[in-house]
């Protein structure tokens, strides 16, 4: 099976709930790919994969987790010159939906 032919930085975010916002800080223009565990496996094997993100021309960028799953962030320089230092952090938690109000009656 083919492997990708360019270096990348990988961040394993583990299981994250939908609605969480992450922030990626970059020192240069780079590709940022937020993808599920299955898509990360496809990416590593140079197969077609889906991701959220793309070319990040400014820093920091924020991405919102679209669904509950095991997530990965990949930062790579494919198509760009040089190197980019990067970091990833969670900046917000998902909003908890308001549940029904329980009113006590005497």
UniProtKB/TrEMBL annotation:
Domain DUF1883 stretches: 6-94
Highest taxon above the source species: Bacteria
SUPFAM superfamilies: Atu1913-like
Pfam family of the protein (one): DUF1883
Designated name of the protein: DUF1883 domain-containing protein
Organism for this UniProt entry: Mycoplana ramosa (Mycoplana bullata)
């Amino acid at each position: 099976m083919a492997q990708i032919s360019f270096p990348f930085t990988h961040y394993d975010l583990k299981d994250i709930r939908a609605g969480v916002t992450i922030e990626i800080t970059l020192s240069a223009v780079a590709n940022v790919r937020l993808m599920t565990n299955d898509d990360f496996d496809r990416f590593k094997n140079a197969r077609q994969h889906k991701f959220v993100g793309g070319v990040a021309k400014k820093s920091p960028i924020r991405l919102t987790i679209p669904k509950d799953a095991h997530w990965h962030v990949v930062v790579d320089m494919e198509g760009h010159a040089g190197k980019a230092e990067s970091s990833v952090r969670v900046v917000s938690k998902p909003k908890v939906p308001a549940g029904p109000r329980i009113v006590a009656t005497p």
